Amino acid sequence: MNRRHFIKTVLSTSLLTPLLGPGKSADPNLTLYLISDHPQDSLPAIMRELGTEPSFWSGRFSFGNPHPSGEKIKHVLCRTGWRQACPASSTGLVLSFQPLHHAARPSFTLVRNGKVEDIRSRRLSRLWKEMNDSRPDSACLTIASLNGPREPSAHGRTAAIYTDGKKRAVLALGKDQSKRFASACGEVVVGIERGRAVVLASTCRHKICQSSLPASLAGERIICAPNRFLLEIEGPRFVDTITG
Amino acid sequence: MSTQSLARKRFSLFIFLLAAAVTCRVKERWQSYTLFFFDTVCDVEILCQAAQIRATQEEISRVFTTVEEQFSPGRQDLSSPLVLELFQQSRQVYLNTGGYFDITVGPLVELWGFSSRAYHVPRPEDIKAVLPLVGMEKIRLGASGLVLQSGMKLDWGGIAIGWAVDRAVKALRDRGISRGFINVGGDLYCWGSNPDNKDWRVGIQHPRQKGYLGVLSVSNTGVATSGDYQKYFERNGIRYCHIFNPTTGYPATERQSVTVIGPLTMLCDALSTALFISPEPEAILKRYPEYGAIFVNSRGEVATMGKSPGLRSF
After folding, report:
1. CA-CA distance, B157 to B159, in Å (whole number)?
2. Is the entire prediction scored with pTM above 0.95?
3. Which CATH number fits domain A158-243: 2.60.320.10, 1.10.10.10, 3.40.50.2000, 1.20.1070.10?
4. Which of A214, B68, B75, B124 could be a cystine partner for A196, CB 3.0 to 4.6 Å?
């Protein structure tokens, strides 16, 4: 596999960093694709050259999936001020492992904000050449994703009320209030309390909507299917849709 | 006619055709709407002309109504072609997952009170008594359709919604809708690019906290999640979810959520259930090389497994 093919492949890979996507965040993000059977040997040097201070990247790292050199990587990172944490979405550095179907020359590629970084004029190029020249082929790809401080979900400003798929009202979250909405099988009473929206009462049978957690983050919803009722918090969205 | 005049006419025609093409293109707008099917919310976001909205809504409603009618509990016609088709698909997944995806868990769902929402922990002897009614190998394919043993009940919940999403997406694509997503309660398919001309960003609901576990960046892909946080009850500090291990009769407890990504939403839906239960998920994913999964185990640890789209050329 040549370098161009490798870069093309990793850039077209949509699932390589499934747990890390910063959504619409404009914060800086940097991804290191490291082909090496011993990533713990070169990772500290590369990160030092990149100036990746743990304090800027939240100081916490995690593994996206089990890594064969996980313990060794953990050891070298902890020595440089990082500490392991969970879940992955709360950490500034996430390391994932991907086996290569065909062994390749040890090397690394840096992608900053979606663009491959040119390292030819930097000290990193010497490191790259050393790796590429001196070692046997490797079948281990380590993906180290550094994501800047981000807010994966923000507090909403308003709660939109839909019945039968049509928008009926918009309630400001900043003002405590309660309102009744006629719906498919009766009515639903919505309350806004301390910036959070709740269903106070509903004429549905099982009252699942009433026991739903209060909604306050943009995109959060409370659904009452029998009443064909939907409450959705409006605000800046970081995703297009949600699974779960 | 002079050469200059002919060239001018051709240029005018080109400009006219270009303007017509641009005008047609401008008419396409991002449209989003919400429908209610399968006791949940169905979100649709598509790029289409204003005149197409109503037709797409009707098309999706037609597909979902048909699936709802055929596969809702107590309304099953065991000889209908759709039921037979989905049965064959389910049977294949049943065989490939070592029986961990099983549509015959209906008696267990009922015994634990999930169908009536009168939740309770049954006595071990009651569970033992129901287990002989579970297992797809006990269903016979007769001349007039499926033949169930007395007391058996089918629960299509783990596959029918994903199947319906695939059928609805196909119907829209056949109408020329080139970009969009359909999401029915977390079982979704997205195709083309999003309104920002990038891959679709799909947030994975965190199984224990508000907000997202992470964000997937995908296109032309189905996604489905099974979790223990959607339908469950607690007794004496133990959480009992609605996903049953068909071999033991008890709810699965080893994982908090499993998200599956792959070409068909139907298989993502069914595999997320099987992987949620199975102690050997690697063996299942080996049989589905086009699919990948994100696991959150009972301690909240995250792991990924299986195929990553885009790595085919390695």
Report:
1. 6
2. no
3. 2.60.320.10
4. A214
